[in-house]
Specification:
The chain is mainly alpha-helical. It contains eight helices and three strands; from the N terminus they run E-H-H-E-H-H-E-H-H-H-H. A three-stranded parallel sheet has the order 1-2-3. The longest helix is centred in the middle third of the chain and has 11 residues, at about 65-75. The radius of gyration is 15 Å and the shape is globular.
């Protein structure tokens, strides 16, 4: 499976302490040169910068435009931070999805209603 990531999930997962779950779920992850520049170089000293820079399992791929074309051509599934956290929870890597969602609310611009819907869909209590 080919998995490519944008900067937002990388940074958000680093902020809430779930970055390492990515490697458990995806042995190889591709990012564009633009994402690498945004997270590692422009974001030096910020959450996600050192994690991405040190992750030998993350490979810098082609530019964003070509990455999007490749993803569309391959019919790749898109999964954002919420979907990744749900997957970590369902795989047993993350034991407290509600706690991770609470952290997500403080570190990103996410609509709480979406998180409540996802918790309800999984049969979990609301935030």
């Amino acid at each position: 499976m080919i998995v490519a990531a944008d900067s937002s999930p990388l940074v958000i997962l680093a902020k809430i302490g779930c970055f390492d779950f990515l490697h458990r779920l995806y042995p190889r992850l591709y990012i564009s040169a633009e994402v690498h520049r945004e997270v590692v170089i422009a974001g030096a000293g910020l959450p996600g910068a050192s994690e991405v820079a040190k992750a030998e399992w993350i490979e810098v791929l082609l530019d964003d435009y070509n990455a999007r074309k490749l993803a569309a051509a391959e019919g790749l599934q898109v999964r954002g931070s919420v979907g990744l956290l749900e997957t970590f929870y369902l795989k047993g890597y993350l034991t407290d999805l509600r706690g991770a969602f609470r952290q997500l609310l403080t570190h990103s611009y996410i609509d709480q209603r979406l998180l409540e819907l996802r918790l309800r869909a999984l049969g979990l209590p609301p935030l």
